[in-house]
Amino acid sequence: MKLQVLSHAGLAVTHGDTQLLCDPWIVGSTYWRSWWNYPPVPRALVDSLRPTHIYLTHIHWDHFQGASLEKFARETPIIVPSGPYDRMKRDLGYLGFTNVIELGHGKKYSLAPDFSIVSYHFGLFLDSAVVIECDGVTIFNANDAKLMGMPLRQVLRRHPKIDFVLRSHSSANSRLCYEVMDGPGVVLDDQSSYLKSFAKFTQRTGARYAIPFASNHCFLHKEVFAFNRTITTPIDVRDHFAQNGIASPTVQIMTPGSTWSQQDGFQSDGEDFFENREERLAEYAAAKKEKLETFYEQEARAEIPLADVQKYFTAFSAALPRFVRRLYRKHPITLVLLAGERETIFEVSLHDGSVRQLESYDGVANPIQIHTSALIMAHCIAYDLFSHLPISKRVKYRVMRRTKRYVQMLNMLFNLYEYDMLPLRRNFSGRSVGSWITRWRELLLYGRIAFDLAIRRRLDPLRYI
Q1: Which residues pair with 337 in a beta bridge?
Q2: What letter does residue 258 receive in the DSSP assignment?
Q3: Where do the DSSP E strands lie in 47-107?
Q4: Counting beta carbons within 10 angstroms of the beta carbon of residue 179, is it exposed (0 to 12), middle (13 to 18) or buried (19 or more)?
Q5: Residues 345-391: pLDDT tens digits?
Q6: What residues have CB less than 8 Å from 284, skipping those under 6 apart?
Q7: pLDDT value, residue 416
Q8: How high is the pLDDT of residue 27?
Q9: What's the confidence (pLDDT) of residue 455?
Q10: At what angle do helices 440-456 and 430-438 cross, to 10 degrees?
Q11: Which parts of the chain sit beneath pLDDT 50?
């Protein structure tokens, strides 16, 4: 059996003639030229892959990337978590894949003799981890799924001897995208929290080796390049373990192409990309300059008609519960959409779904602003991609301290809408109810978190791991 890291969150496990790929984003960029694999994926590695099966943990583009998937035969079995909604299966159908297998929470799927996977679902918006059991070796690919509490204990009871645990170790959320106009000193994120969470989670699993995973990307688009300084690297993880005297599990840095096998142990290279990061990032951006410039030109030409924005928000507002619409009655959202030097400004009322175009805006009259590219906004409203927007970092939320919560709530509502949880009646479908019944441990966890919030008025996620 051979384990090989392919990319940011890409993993290959090969045993005999069977090869499983997990989340193979292996070519190009994602999130509107924002995210790029770091270190880059060698072309020879991409060409060497011959998957017999593919597992996709969730629908975010750094895990479910069309250009990468299209490199493989359309009849390749692709396994996805079977949650309350079926968008992953539908989108794979649009790409032409004909053998999509939905795997329920806690269900086992055999790929070959002595080679199987078990899918574990977690999160309000469908995410999953996968446990791979192959030739006597157990790999817990937690990826972006932040299992904790009873759901984590379920995994550890069923798989008491874990050899490798792979998990994300840096931020992919929208916290750093906020600009609080009347609170410039407000702390938006705590990077150390990701190191602490990675350490506690991996220790909890009892694994032999911990691999910093699913956070190995960089930002090359000119609007987001500065965010590279906010990324927690695998070397940061290793240093955190050393500084805090954490001897087990052993942190193993694996860059694209790195392998482990029972015969040869670890074969790894590429740490120079982290040790000389600024130099390597500059070289990477220079190498991708032509592609980036082409995309900048495409963005500069983009236009977004009022009618398109109106059509989307009419439908979106209609899907919201009445009490939610009332919360936004006096809190319209101002969209500031850029195309080169041009700004197009819309004011959206979620209360009644109306949209009007503005000539100007300011922080006093428009205390809830969303700034992004006109091209990105056009894609979001045409293809239901708002759940990808915060992850991309290609957005800025300019708010007041008193209005920040309305944007945070709006992002939650976008997710609910795109994950088929709005209108609320969709949550009572047989598929949705059946999915949550199998995840009853998670529902109890949410109840405990809600109780702690009500009593303690604060939340420390580490205490649930």
Answers
A1: 344, 372
A2: -
A3: 53-55, 78-81, 100-103
A4: middle
A5: 999 999 999 999 999 999 999 999 999 999 999 999 999 999 999 99
A6: 36, 38, 40, 218, 220
A7: 97
A8: 98
A9: 86
A10: 80
A11: none
DSSP string, 311-361: HHHHHHHHHS-HHHHHHTTT--EEEEEEETTEEEEEEE-TTT--EEEES--
Q: For residue 90, count other CB atoms closer than 10 A to its CB.
A: 10
Residue type, 44: A
The beta-strand segments (E) located in 58-107 are 78-81, 100-103
Buried b (16+ CB within 10 A) or exposed e, 312-343: bbeebbebbeeebbeebeebbbbbbbbbeeee
At residue 187, the pLDDT reads: 66
Whole-angstrom distance, CA of residue 115 vs CA of residue 138: 10
**Matching residue, tokens 């945070």:** 408
CB atoms within 10 A of CB 57: 27
Q: Percentages helix, strand, coil for the chain, rounded to the nearest 5? A: 35, 25, 40
Tokens standing for 72?
Answer: 């493989």
CA 454, 120, 246, 448: dihedral to nearest 10 degrees? 10
